[in-house]
Design brief:
The chain is of the alpha/beta class. The strands form three sheets. It has a six-stranded parallel sheet with strand order 1-11-10-9-12-13, sandwiched between helices. Strands 6-5-4-7-8 form a five-stranded parallel sheet, sandwiched between helices. It is globular, with a radius of gyration of 26 Å. The termini are far apart.
């Protein structure tokens, strides 16, 4: 049963405690990465047989397999995927940056170019649950950024095929290549390249502890989006919110993972008690009841504070991945929310809207990292390059200043390079 805590009556260490995976997988992952670097596709096929129970002749998903998957899913699902994709494109297209240049006196030009990464790798889980929504959320911003090639990796099932819903989403999103490989080995393949899988410049997408550790270990060889922890939801609600809705929204995240965190922060003890009862009522109707129950019992909590202001202060300290603001006039409080991955406004805006359909991204900072990081977006797939142009006359005017500055740092070579041209022109 979910715990109820009265803020100020229990230690803050309990109020703000986080769920942390205890599995140490760094050595296992390091060995997998080393094997893939050395043996390429041979290692990938061996791991796929070992972990996924299938021997593959080819890692590449063929066009025929994609067509078969698209034709096998319901037409209604394809239409919903297209609607969701349209919303995601609409939102992320507003994030696209433009370069700039500044022209100064004496012909000086300084500026910045926006350049998309050439190739992006997308990891899509396929274990405990398959997420076609992740395909849309992670590949569409890359396409909007102008990435030349989006490469997707996802583990196959025991029949050697990829979940058809994932392939249908990849078709709608315009993913360029898809490979049947998962786990840390897939991350290694994207980072270093193999005979089949091309090396990418950026890896994005969620995964289990092995995937997260692999992303951490290859960072620097490639860029990554983030190290994602267990999924989180925090609901801010006052006494007028329907407890059935709150319970349903908390369980929507609890069913993700036994390590997921579902938290209600409220100024109403009456609501807290009603929500606890509702959670117990609704748990038995979930297909993933065991996962959700473990999450609620181990990591769920209801925090009761004296006022809505304190409730929001607590929410900011937790800095959750998803934050629901279940109050009247939610826009009155929007500026008060300083730290959250994504905010869902009002009494009729469940977090599931963001997971699937509304348009803002669902790949979000977890574990309190919303205090300093952002949701996945178009910016994740671009890099910025600066440029500078000075005419001879412009350089001559500032050469002595540059040399003076350089000499202050003891870098006489820098100083010489600044004045040598001017001296030759005198």
């Amino acid at each position: 049963m979910i715990k109820i805590m009265k803020y100020g009556e229990v230690p803050n260490s309990e109020i703000f405690a986080r769920t942390e995976p205890k599995m140490n997988v760094s050595e296992i992952v390091a060995d997998i990465i080393a094997n893939v670097r050395e043996n390429g596709d041979v290692a990938l096929k061996a791991y796929t047989e070992k972990f996924d129970g299938v021997a593959l002749d080819s890692l590449l998903v063929s066009k025929d397999e994609i067509d078969e998957a698209v034709n096998s899913v319901e037409t209604e699902f394809i239409e919903i995927l297209k609607k969701a994709a349209e919303n995601i494109r609409l939102f992320h297209s507003r994030q696209k940056r433009e370069g700039f240049s500044i022209e100064g006196a004496d012909g000086i030009v300084i500026g910045q170019k926006i350049i998309p990464v050439e190739r992006a790798g997308l990891y899509v889980p396929g274990g405990t649950a398959a997420y076609p929504s992740t395909v849309l959320m992670d590949s569409i911003p890359a396409k909007i950024a102008g990435v030349g090639e989006v490469v997707m990796v996802t583990p196959p099932s025991k029949d050697g095929k990829v979940n058809p819903a994932i392939l249908a989403a990849a078709y709608v999103a315009g993913v360029d290549k898809i490979f049947k490989v998962g786990g840390a080995q897939a991350i290694a393949a994207l980072a270093y390249g193999t005979q089949s899988i091309p090396k990418v410049d950026k890896i994005v997408g969620p995964g289990n502890a092995f995937v997260a550790e692999a992303k951490k270990q290859v960072f620097g060889v490639v860029s990554i989006d983030m190290i994602a922890g267990p999924s989180e939801i925090l609901v801010v609600a006052d006494s007028k919110q329907n407890p059935r809705y709150v319970a349903a929204d908390l369980l929507s995240q609890a069913e993700h993972d036994k390590l997921a965190s579902a938290v209600l922060v409220t100024d109403s003890m009456e609501l807290a008690l009603s929500v606890r009862e509702e959670i117990e009522n609704q748990l038995s109707s979930l297909e993933r009841e065991e996962i959700a129950r473990t999450s609620i019992d181990s990591n769920g909590k209801i925090i009761v504070a004296d006022s809505l202001k304190v409730v929001i202060d607590i929410a900011n300290e937790i800095a959750p991945e998803h934050l629901e603001l279940c109050v009247d006039n939610p826009f009155d409080y929007l500026d008060d929310i300083k730290h959250a991955g994504s905010i869902f406004m009002g009494r009729d805006c469940p977090e599931a809207l963001g997971d699937y359909f509304a348009g803002p991204n669902h790949t979000l900072p977890t574990s309190g990292t919303a205090k300093f990081s952002s949701p996945l977006g178009v910016d994740d797939f671009i890099k910025k390059t600066q440029f500078t142009y000075y005419t001879p006359e412009a350089l001559d005017k500032v050469a002595d200043d540059i040399a003076y500055f350089a000499n202050k740092e003891g870098l006489t070579g820098h100083a010489r390079s600044a004045v040598i041209r001017s001296e030759d022109r005198k």
